[in-house]
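Note to self: the last two entries modelled the partners one at a time, which told us nothing about the interface. This time every component goes in together.
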Amino acid sequence: MTERELLELSIKAQENSYSPYSQFRVGAALLCADGTVYTGCNIENATYGATNCAERTAVFKAVSEGKRDFTAIAITSSGGDLTFPCGICRQVLAEFAPEIKVILTDKDGCIKIFKLDELLPHTFKL
Ligand code: THU
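The predicted structure of the combined assembly is written out below.
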């Protein structure tokens, strides 16, 4: 699975985005160590607070299917700029994969890759 292929799956995942409040579609594609991929989209709610981000949708789908070992996540959105994961999603990713590769792209197709620990140093731990 190349970085570009994972990004393409995240773009496809935007199709199921439920985002009537923000009109901002987000897609994520989470690559597991065994090569399987779980995708996710943002799912908004009239309460706003109950909204679930695309990244967490993908992580929760994977974990609920017994997967916990993740190597990369691609994130894209209907916005033109790089779409970085929000703070809550960074913490959720860190729970399972503190060194996961976060793959982003902008509307010109320029790929940027970050390690999660540079996006969220000093993760909260119990
Ligand atoms: N959103 C995500 O799906 N992922 C993020 O990391 C940041 C924000 C969604 C939530 C909401 O549906 C919309 O983007 C606007 O905040």
